[in-house]
Amino acid sequence: MNEIRANQLIQQMRLMSLQARGEVGARPSIEGGTAERPDFGALLQQSLAAVNAQQQKASQMAEALERGEPGVSLAQVMVEAQKASVSFQALNTVRNKMLSAYQEIMNMQV
């Protein structure tokens, strides 16, 4: 886990802590201050781009292994392929949850 992902994880944990306390308006930053909440659409777009990048990286590594390029091992290719698979499954789960929440809201009687 690199430093950026660790910082993002800490930031998400702080946000969940604030939400649990009912202080949803403020979002903690890495430094401990508060920052504005990111746009949901932008956050979703970033997630899609990250999953796409992971899948492209796995594909490029598999092609490099097929070409016999030095420095690319089967183990590395398999790890990258699994990372891409897990990230896609997580994205798919989030999509399904969002779709089910949308359908539940649409079925509510006003």
Structure, explained:
It is elongated and about 60 Å long. The chain has helices spanning 3-21, 40-67, 74-106, and strands at 27-28, 34-35. Strands 1-2 form a two-stranded antiparallel sheet. It is built from 3 helices and 2 strands. Helix 2 (40-67) packs antiparallel against helix 3 (74-106). The longest helix is centred in the C-terminal third of the chain and has 33 residues, at 74-106.
The whole-number mean of residue pLDDT values reads 80
Helix content: over 70%
- Total beta strand runs: 2
- Beta-strand percentage range: under 5%
Please state the oligomeric state of the protein chains shown: single chain
The geometry reads as elongated
Q: Biggest sheet, open or closed, and with what strands and sense?
A: 2 strands, antiparallel
- The strand line-up of the biggest sheet is 1-2
Pick out the low-confidence regions. Answer: 26-30
Helical/strand content category: mainly alpha
Distance between the termini: 46 Å
Give me the strand/helix succession: HEEHH
Rg value: 19 Å
Number of helices: 3
- The structural domain count equals 2
